[in-house]
């Protein structure tokens, strides 16, 4: 029997694919209650950010690949993914447990928390991806330097096997546990393999053997000084380093290729001002959401990193207002359009 012809909608090349994980989190709240199967993980939240950065008519250009164990709650996950309209594939591993984590909150501000994996993490690899996902113009990765090198080698090989020679945009955030000073040189070397390197400020300071003490104020100069160490030579990647700094916003450092080597530094404000801190329910996943949105918007606006970071700040705000992903329906997220919130943000930035 001849298979049905794919529609034009199904043939679009993906703008974004993450090699991060979808994690089923077990949340332990300060009142001793527990929530199970809460969707988390860098793969899930970066995909959310990418989806927030496109119009509904382009939703199929955001792709997601999930490795699922025999205990995977398909109904709960698809309850979120299906309305988003993205192109997603869930690959079932019948003899394996799904990736599960334990997130313990120590106060009702959700600022002090601890995290651990309850099962062996199922990290997607390029070898797992369907062919249409391999054609993506952007890949998001969260890994240590050695794993990154393996991932990129496999990705390049698989793309070449299928005649895909255009270089994708590569966006990399570090694996938090490996952000210690003894890995700094490895991170500097590996950052040359990607276009965008993005630690958060805690990870960056850990790599540079620094940390902010409770009595110390946030130091933008220190963050900038540490970040410039990743522009090791004049003619190598990364082109962009973005340090995500939570309530302090984010700093975008861009390498100027000509006429001479310079690094341009721009700070981007967060969507929620300090006066609106009460609107932040849970910061988990905010940084991943930021990067997914940045990767897509950077392509859509033809390389304006600062504008992309501003849209990413807006996208991240939708991840902060609740535990788990935001509600989506009739073109709104948590009852608000991305365009409306972006307009509000830009007006605020222009007036500040």
TrEMBL record:
InterPro entries: PfkB_dom, Ribokinase-like. Residues 172-324 form the Carbohydrate kinase PfkB domain. Pfam families: PfkB. PANTHER family: PFKB FAMILY CARBOHYDRATE KINASE SUPERFAMILY (AFU_ORTHOLOGUE AFUA_4G09500), PROTEIN MAK32. This is Carbohydrate kinase PfkB domain-containing protein. It comes from Zasmidium cellare ATCC 36951. The lineage of its organism: Eukaryota, Fungi, Dikarya, Ascomycota, Pezizomycotina.
